[in-house]
Here is the input.
Amino acid sequence: MCEKLIKIKENDCGELHYCESCNTYHLLYKNFHFVLNIKEYQALKNHISDIDIEFWLDKFGETKVKRKIPVATSQENLILVFDIYEFIALKSLLFNQQQVNEIMYLSTDQIEYQTILN
Here is the structure.
């Protein structure tokens, strides 16, 4: 692991760092640590930006599965899955800014909150 990492961005789910000495990005997200060269980092950004959140939320909308947004990897037997909050946090780390047109509004059934009726 690199010793001189420059922090690019941080949020509640993770951090993105860059190492100038070995030209690698270090994405620490929840309990994962990805070490990516510049080409791999750009490929990941492109892959994440191509994922249609609304499609996956609609496709698995009726299921009880908490994490409904899959991210395929080059390893055939590994798929990373995210809920909407985790996915937006990941996207925020990778793209370093949030654009107004990428803000998504949730319906009431997508909000995981315990309702107590008196």
Remarks:
- The radius of gyration is 16 Å.
- The chain is about 25% helix and 25% strand.
- Confidence is low (pLDDT under 50) at residues 98-102.
